[in-house]
Amino acid sequence: MGVGQNIAAENANWTFGGNVPDTFVDHIKLSVPLYEMGHGLICQVSDFFVRNDSLCYEIGTSTGELIRKLAEHNAGKPDARWIGIDVEPEMVKVAEAHCADVPNVTILHDDARHMEMDKADMIVSYYTMQFVPPRYRQELFTKIYETLNWGGAFVMFEKVRGPDARFQDMMTQLYNEFKISNGFSSEEIVEKSRSLKSVLEPFSTQGNLDLLARAGFTDVTSIQKYICFEGFLAIK
After folding, report:
1. Closest Cα partner for 27 from 1, 7, 2?
2. Which positions ≥6 away from 173 have C-beta within 8 Å?
3. Are strands 148-159 and 229-235 parallel, antiparallel or unpaired?
4. Residue 1 contacts residue 194 (beta carbons within 8 Å)
5. Angstrom distance (rounded) from CA 158 to CA 161
6. Which of 51, 75, 91, 197 maximizes the CB count within 10 A of its CB?
7. How far apart are CA 29 and CA 228, in angstroms?
8. How far apart are CA 92 and CA 110, in angstroms?
9. Contact 124/59 with Cβ under 8 angstroms?
């Protein structure tokens, strides 16, 4: 099945491996509204939390685009450390190459659920939690809360479900129109949706807020929203 940008995917078996990293950036920019604008916003948010002695993580760093931008945005704080984590070895190779000339960026092939994490001032998850199986998601949210220093930030962008069936139907149709306007064919849209079955499990806005609250976060706000895509800022 073709889903655009020469990416093939099987029914209920989407993967970030294989040849996906080769054209992933082009594909995701056309698939997710305000994708690059979200990168810029997170860089601006980092001004409030990153110091020269900070440690910061990105969970699900994919090709390393965002973590490189964060390190470059904070170039005036050269001793801040940036660690990108991804479970997909092919993505890690691309991210390592992309960030090779940025000395304070480290890319790790690991699973944030199981790795040992040091105290951090900022943790970013950019459209990653939606791919973590729901049975493990609360555990990871709680680990993020415990990893952050007091006053540290968790920035999370997610695809979100509508609060009820009527809104969900509207959001689905509006999102399909967005993808059509970006050149995806009807067949590619359907095939991508089929490939993500059981792989992509988005929660509603309230569902994400509940996960954050159970983890311990009480100071949470939305910082970006477009149809079914939302960015959250949670402060410990």
Report:
1. 7
2. none
3. antiparallel
4. yes
5. 10
6. 91
7. 15
8. 9
9. yes
Positions of E strands within 127-213: 148-159
DSSP 129: G
pLDDT tens for the 236 residues of the chain, in order? 554 444 445 554 545 656 666 667 787 888 899 999 999 999 999 999 999 999 999 999 999 999 999 999 999 999 999 999 999 999 999 999 999 999 999 999 999 999 999 999 999 999 999 999 999 999 999 999 999 999 999 999 999 999 999 999 999 999 999 999 999 888 888 887 887 877 889 999 999 999 999 999 999 999 999 999 999 999 99
Mapping DSSP to helix (H, G, I), strand (E, B) and coil, where does residue 124 land?
strand
Which residue is associated with the tokens 């792989």? Answer: 199
**CB atoms < 10 A from the CB of 177, how many?**
11
Report the candidate in 131, 88, 82 with the shortest Cα–Cα distance to residue 109.
88
Q: Which pTM was predicted?
A: 0.93
Name the phi and psi angles at 182, rounded to 5: -95, 10
State residue 140 phi and psi, 5-degree precision: -70, -40
Side-chain-side CA neighbours of 185 within 13 Å: the count stands at 8
C-alpha to C-alpha distances, 26 to 4, 163, 170, nearest whole angstrom: 10, 30, 26
